[in-house]
Design a protein that fits this description.
The complex is a heterodimer of chains A (114) and B (111). Chain A is mostly beta strands. Chain A has strands at residues 4-7, 10-13, 19-25, 31-37, 43-49, 56-57, 68-72, 75-80, 89-96, 103-105, 109-113. Helix content of chain A is 0%, strand content 51%. Chain B has a single domain, classed as Sandwich (Immunoglobulin-like). In chain B, 0% of the residues lie in helices and 51% in strands. Classes of the chains: A mainly beta (114), B mainly beta (111).
Chain lengths: 114, 111
């Protein structure tokens, strides 16, 4: 399976600021996704990070709030913009197509917004 | 604002017993399914997968059953151990496009 490094692992942020989360994979992958996991809940898909083009967002998530970059096949970033306490969650990067189309996850970023 | 967390359903089993965790999915077009285990503070860990052209797949101590008629998936864990205590999620996908997760079940193994 691919080795997925996600940074930072946790952060405490002030309301109104933005945080960029990085996801680095040790091999080229076809698919990269970003998920949110609120406390005690399941995983919700935020968007598909498309290499070289705009991300594809799920209903309820918008680019202005969660801008995503994917400059190449091994790296992606998710920014949580203008944060509020409701954004406090775990944010997870996942990758697929490695090599037999399974989906693997990074260890996540625990975000707390004060 | 106040955040409200949902309480995951919990399955409690005795060490050594078999566990069965169930999951329902909604998209009848889904053709690929994965079970994940998530321990506290960690990302989901891949356990086993199954494609829609199969109704059963076995791994080491785990078996996944797929019933496409009723859109139901189950994970069977044989001889459950304390290390199996975690939250378990199923995920489904159509054409490996996107993966959507079920609500999750917390497995509590009593020694």
């Amino acid at each position: 399976s691919a080795v997925i490094s996600q940074k930072p692992s946790r952060d405490i942020c002030q309301r109104g600021t933005s945080l960029t989360i990085q996801c680095q994979v040790d091999s080229q992958v076809t698919m990269m996704f970003w998920y949110r996991q609120q406390p005690g809940q399941s995983l919700t898909l935020i968007a598909t990070a498309n290499q070289g083009s705009e991300a594809t967002y799920e209903s309820g998530f918008v680019i202005d709030k969660f801008p995503i970059s994917r400059p190449n096949l091994t790296f992606s970033t998710l920014t949580v913009s203008n944060m509020s306490p409701e954004d406090s969650s775990i944010y997870l990067c996942s990758v697929g197509g490695v090599p037999d189309e399974k989906l693997f996850f990074g260890s996540g970023t625990q975000l707390s917004v004060l | 604002g106040e955040s409200v967390g949902l309480h995951l359903p919990t399955l409690s089993v005795q060490e050594g017993d078999n566990s069965i965790i169930n999951c329902a999915y909604s998209n009848s077009a889904s053709d690929y399914f994965i079970w994940y285990k998530q321990e506290s503070g960690k990302g989901p860990q891949f356990i086993i997968d199954i494609r829609s052209n199969m109704d059963k797949r076995q791994g080491q101590r785990v078996t996944v059953l797929l019933n496409k008629t009723v859109k139901h998936l189950s994970l069977q864990i044989a001889a459950t151990q304390p290390g199996d205590s975690a939250v378990y999620f199923c995920a489904d996908s159509y054409n490996f496009n996107k993966f959507y997760f079920g609500s999750g079940t917390k497995l509590n193994v009593k020694p």
